[in-house]
Amino acid sequence: MPDSVADAKRALRADLRERRQVRSDRERDAASAGVTAQLDRLLDDLGATSMSCFLSTPTEPGTHEFVERAVARGIRVLLPITRADGLLDWAVATPDADIAEGLFGLPEPVADVVGPMAVDEVDLLVIPAAAIARDGTRLGWGRGYFDKMIGSMQHRPPIYAVVFDTEVFDELPHDDLDQPVCGVVTPTQTLTLSPARH
């Protein structure tokens, strides 16, 4: 990756991280409620019966309530578990699952692991992001877990990233390893994008 792209990504991530940290509890609660409503609607629109979804950190748009509701309505939800080798394992969400701190301090389920390939069978992927561009470019947090996962999938279902409304951009710095998404969910809207192949 050219140094200029890496530097631009690093600077933008730092700015976005800082903006997320200063959001009030009220803003975060409203974002969580909005994201839950948007994801509920997306499930209905796609007719999905299985999906993957990340468990949000305190500074991300909240997904915990959505996961609980999806499980309660009979959706099979896979939750990611980070591995030291850069891959993701998966666990099936259950109503009573314990949540613990995984690698990098991320919330992860304490549950039986179903392995990296389980995600190939879902109808929908909902993944985290720092920002999304209108051409489908996703800026992650720099560890590459989701880019590797998406890049290795044989069957790619619809992939939607969750961000705050202010984190949807006209364009973002990217490189060849960045995997595009086909949609973005914010607290107020769900946008279907036309990913450009980088």
UniProtKB/TrEMBL annotation:
Record InterPro entries: FTHF_cligase (IPR002698), FTHF_cligase-like_sf (IPR024185), NagB/RpiA_transferase-like (IPR037171)
Pfam families: 5-FTHF_cyc-lig
Gene3D superfamilies from the UniProt entry: NagB/RpiA/CoA transferase-like
Keywords: ATP-binding, Ligase, Magnesium, Metal-binding, Nucleotide-binding
SUPFAM superfamilies in the record: NagB/RpiA/CoA transferase-like (SSF100950)
Keyword Metal-binding among record annotations: yes
Official protein name in the record: 5-formyltetrahydrofolate cyclo-ligase
Species the sequence originates in: Microbacterium koreense
UniProt lineage: Bacteria, Bacillati, Actinomycetota, Actinomycetes, Micrococcales
